[in-house]
Amino acid sequence: MSTMRSALADFIHLFYPHVCAGCGSDIIDIDRQLCLYCISQLPSTHFFNQPGNPVEKNFYGRLNVVNAASGYFFTKHSLIEAVIYELKYKGNKLIGFEMGERLGHLLANSRFNDIDIIIPLPLNAQRFKKRGYNQAEVLSEGIGSIWNKPVVANAVIRNVNTETQTHKGRISRWENMDGVFAVAEPSIIQDKHVLLVDDVVTTGASLEACGAEILKVSGAKISIATLAYTI
Ligand SMILES: [Zn+2]
């Protein structure tokens, strides 16, 4: 940052305090959401360069993934929980883009090297309406900005009125995933290696259902990346 810009940033900061979304510190660049201390505290998984990591194993026998990984461990009352809360419930798209950039760096330096296109897991219509954006798409845009791969948000769609029983247990949720996702633009996916992106992987049921639809397209391959992984 030039001296001039820095002086201007300091001046603006006097009137519009800009604080870290993780810890509240005001020692933070004007255009960032997390301070350097918080970034250093993020619980990295190092899964992107670890074949057979727990995220990948989660899909064994369910979905034929080339690679799968998450950037960070998700635990209760942690910094990563706060980050995802900001992204999903506080309208903080900037923090999502910033975390997407971090994933982009992890991906660009990993074994995930022959991806053709990035597809965010589609959000259901009610949540999209309430939130105003798809957090997986925000993450994907952040990844694409660093990794220089196209983000395609509309090739796969989420059907409406297919998920009425989301409060049921794990087994029921799997059963209810039938017909939830559909490929709208097969020509975009044909013969492509798709990176499917979401914020958190827990059971992986949605990613599995969406990935299965993508794999029905001729020549398609799939890998999965999420910001966080629930232990
Ligand atoms: Zn902080």
Fold topology:
Layout: H1 3-15, H2 36-41, H3 54-59, E1 68-74, H4 79-89, H5 93-108, E2 117-120, H6 125-131, H7 135-147, E3 156-158, H8 170-175, E4 181-183, H9 186-189, E5 193-201, H10 205-215, E6 221-230
Parallel strand pairs: 1-6, 2-5, 5-6
Antiparallel strand pairs: 3-4
Helix pairs in contact: 4-5, 5-7
The protein binds zinc ion (ZN).
Zinc ion binds next to helix 2.
Determine and state the CATH class of the largest domain. Answer: Alpha Beta
How are helices and strands ordered from N to C? HHHEHHEHHEHEHEHE
Instruction: List the total number of helices.
Output: 10
Largest sheet: 4 strands, parallel
CATH fold call of the largest domain: Rossmann fold
List low-pLDDT spans.
none
Ligands in the structure? zinc ion
Key phrases:
231 residues; alpha/beta; Rossmann fold; 2 domains; 4-stranded parallel beta sheet; two-stranded antiparallel sheet; 10 helices; globular; binds zinc ion
